[in-house]
Amino acid sequence: MAERESRAVIEMGAIGPTAMSSSKKFILMLSKVWAWVFLGAMILFFIVSVQITSDGAVNFLTIRNSQNILVAITPVLLLGLGQTFVIIGKGIDLSVGWVMSLTSVLAALAIRGAFNDGIPLFPSVVIGLAAAVAGGALVGLFNGVMIAKLKVPAFIVTLGSSFIVRGVALLMAENTTVSGLPRGIRDYGNNALVYYIRGEGGGLYFLERPEVSGPLLRNLDRILPYPVVLTAFVVAIAIYALRSTKFGRHTYAIGGNTEAAVRTGIPVDRHIIMLYVMSASTAGIAGFLSTLRFSAGSAVIGDPLLLSSIAAVIIGGVSLFGGAGTVVGTVIGALIVAVLTTGLVMLNVQPFWQFIVVGTVVILAVIIDQSRDLIVGRAQSD
Amino acid sequence: MDPILSIRGMVKRFGGLVAVNSVDLDVYPGEVVALLGDNGAGKSTLIKCVSGVHQADEGSIDFHGQRVNFSRPIDAQRQGIETIYQDLALANNLDVGANIFLGREVQKRVLGGLFRPLNDQYMLDEAKAALDALEIHFPNLAQPIESLSGGQRQAVAIARAVYWEAKMMIMDEPTNNLGVPEQRKVLELIRKLRDQGVPVVLISHTLPDVFAVSDRLIVMHRGRKVTEKKTSETDTQEVVQYMVGALDDTHEGGETRGTA
Asked: Which of A63, A314, B144, B232 is the most buried (most CB within 10 A)?
């Protein structure tokens, strides 16, 4: 009797995913890697088409171009990283764009103030970073407490706080720009780990920008600018945190089944607050970097980046319903958006087309995601 | 033998409604107690008072000889009372190992504890061992449990409770929405729990299930316990009479007749 029963178990096991046909398996696999495939295909397309349209004069895949793309995605990616955690945890953070603006202003004010008080440049820059991250964290704390404790929907809270933050940023900047920063900070935002000069008399230079002029200057390429290095560092932490730590596991659990997370004793409220603090803090890093890069604080810099960052997150496969997605996916998503934008510009396509293309890719990404769910049968109702 | 769980005079009111009306209930080691009753009889409310979802207005709960007062479900869980609801307590986007260790993850120590990544391999191995102990076999443990069937997920929830050494298990309609072979499997699991000495309180509408696995049954009607019998000493017909209120030991005998 008992033996027969336990055999029923084994049969029960066979009802599961092993019963999938090979064509379904193929589609499933494709849906998992499609973003990589799409990115690769897109780069290939631009390499070829840019060559053709420019009669071989312009090359898409140059060091300079690749580094430009990396610099361009830094802010989008930083905003997207926090957003990745928040959305996997079944939330949304609409405030990151304006938080980036606010923290750009905060960083500029802090650096200017510290430097004018006689503090040397490097410590002043560190103070600027601290001010930006702390300012962001404060907004995140507000968002998180409203959402977790007062149970106001995340969409509403972060929409409201983004208006508040916008106002505060403009008030603090006393208009839109904070200038008068020490000259040297430009280097922090624009110098690179490695320099490369093509051709005769050139070569590789590490950490120090070579003093060159004339034709050599035209051949000078920056490799891994500091903002890219800092962002890569944050990305590495985010990958580790989401994939391999308790914090990441709980984020998925809350997104997958909040009720289950509560029942197993996960401190869900505290966790949700932490997610918004993280999201706004990484937006703070983005604001800080933009201040370094442009040697000025801007109270409007982040606003247009919000939707791009959400687009990157969604293209990267993060489910808006929570519980699914990866940091690497978001990186790919951000790369896709940046490569598309850069490539279209190099093809001399009217810049407005990039919006149309990016929008199409976002919708396409979600359709692919959903078709996978249909195949696997996400919420099996047996 | 002393009861593991002992409830005396429990009353729970919702406004003017008396959902549970001075109910006594004992659960002994290694037995399956079925809690029966029509919708609104108060069985779920009674159980929620035990598992910490509700707090009783009157009466006492003793668990392992200790007076207990659970203000949250997690308190009851920490004492070893596991309640298994259909689908409620699992994260479908996580794999079996992650679910069994949810909220109690095992970490590695890297660089003297500077980094503490999850020890997924250990959790997976332990999960497999826990499932093996209950003779549950899945083809692939390392994928999200959303691809499992309802019965398989139920089995994961039971394995989790067993792994964390539940001292008593409450199951609310465990065979609802399951196919026939899966229902059989869940009942088999309940028997296994009993054989391992873990008492099970089973709430069910499905009388064949109740007669298949329970040792004792308690019928509630309009908040009161109307009878308590050994399963072997009654039959479906009699139980139905109690459930609809046609029979009532408390009226017949003046007080509740316990057979335990």
From this structure: A314
